[in-house]
Amino acid sequence: MGLTGIDDAARALSQALANVNVKCDFVSVPTHPTITKLRVLSRNQQLIRLDFEEGFSGVDPQPMHERIQQALGSIGALVLSDYAKGALTSVQTMIRLAREAGVPVLIDPKGTDFERYRGATLLTPNLSEFEAVVGKCQDEAQIVERGMKLIAEFELVGAAGDAALSRG
């Protein structure tokens, strides 16, 4: 599930995913082009990558909410990857819909505003993303201490009421 334009890139993406039996349910946005990346290679080595991305800010989130709502009865988890391109501007509604259906919400966050992910089941920041939110950690004990505070502060609790902080 995601946002695309109505263009050749969207059609190519849909076809490539269908070719490997990946079911996709894109919301097609006629006012925005599909985000694309062009890799320039020479002798199997990437020389440069060009990103063509206007993002999807200002797009009505309701079609995404409807698709999520329809899928919740048949999925084991809602996995959201935030690339700050506009698809998750209403992430709180997405979290609420999933939690009301008893579906865990796993999020790969972007940026330092973890408040927007409040109520998710699991966040998966890397160390630099984590430290951008909680500050530089001197050792593993400090990582654990600050991680547990983050879990409590943003109500990141699993379905069984448990919490975990994990390396890797």
Describe the structure.
This protein is α/β, with parallel strands linked by helices and 168 residues long. It is built from 5 helices and 7 strands. A 3-stranded parallel β-sheet has the order 5-6-7. The radius of gyration is 18 Å and the shape is globular. 18% of the residues are buried.
Task: Give the secondary structure arrangement, pairings included.
Blueprint: E1 2-4, H1 8-19, E2 26-28, E3 36-42, E4 45-52, H2 62-71, E5 78-81, H3 91-100, E6 105-108, E7 122-123, H4 127-134, H5 140-153
Parallel strand pairs: 1-2, 5-6, 6-7
Antiparallel strand pairs: 3-4
Task: Quickly list its features.
single chain; 168 residues; alpha/beta; Rossmann fold; 2 domains; three-stranded parallel beta sheet; two-stranded parallel ribbon; 5 helices; 7 strands; heptose-1-phosphate adenylyltransferase activity; Ribokinase-like; PfkB_dom; heptose 7-phosphate kinase activity
